[in-house]
Each structure stands twice: as C-alpha cells, then as structure tokens.
Write a structure and sequence with these properties.
This protein is mainly alpha-helical. The protein contains six helices and no strands.
Length: about 160
Amino acid sequence: MEPDQRLQRPPSLVPNLADWRFEHYLTMRLLPLFYLLLVAGAAVAVFGIAAACFWISTPIGLIALSVSPLLLLVIVAVVRAALEYLIMAHRIMRIIERMDALPEQVRDLSYRVDGITRQVDRLTDNVQDIHQDLMHVRPLLRSAGLPARLLAFLKTPGDR
C-alpha cells in the first residue's frame, strides 16, 4: 500500500476516541449508532411514561398508550431532522475545508500558466524570426525561380 493511501484511509474507531486534538471526525461514523440509540431511548421513554400513567389511573394509561405512537413519531422526526442538520453542517464544513485549499491550487495553476505563456512567447519569437529570415531570402528565391519550380514539381502527375 502506498504511503499516500494509508494517510487517506479513515482511521479506526477506537484510537480516534482518544484523539484529544480532534484531528479526525467521528461524527459521521457514529451517527447511525447515535440515531439508533436516540430512537430506542425515545421509545423506552414514551412507552415507560405510558406504563407509569397506568399506575395513576387506567383511563389515563389508555389515553397515554393511544397517544404514545404519535408522540414517538414526532420525537423520531425531530431527532431525524436534528441529525440531518448535523450532517448538512458537516458537509458544509468539508466544502469550506476544500475551499481553503483553493488559493494554493490557483497559485500552482498560475505558475503553470505562466510557464506555458513563456513557452508560447518563445515560440512566437521563433516564428517571427523565421518569417523575417524568409522575407530577407524571398528576393533571392524569386530571382532563382525556385518557388515556381517547387510548385511545378509538387503538382500531381495528372496536372503536368
């Protein structure tokens, strides 16, 4: 395995629990477990309250038992919305971290474009030098009739 791949692989869960500098985020990896624990805790709490209502009175217990699924549904929806908000905040944070790297990438790209611009400028100068040399040699070539002979030679055999 390449060293770069080892650095990019997500570290294991247990050593990261002792990461006192918080260099690695466990939120996204622990979120499903956290969601399950919250939903299970909410179910135990809601149905526990309904059971406790039976101690007060049977009619109050029946009312609490009939309302408890709706209450559980509302609690699960609120927990889900809160966790989705955390996920959205986490993703925004990741985007911002990537945006922090943009100036360095632009600087590198600018350096490369400058290098290409210098090469294109050199090529342009070389083409201009060749053009000037040809303009100086042009009268000699015309006087010798070389362009006409060259064109006649390059014509296809059917055109001759």
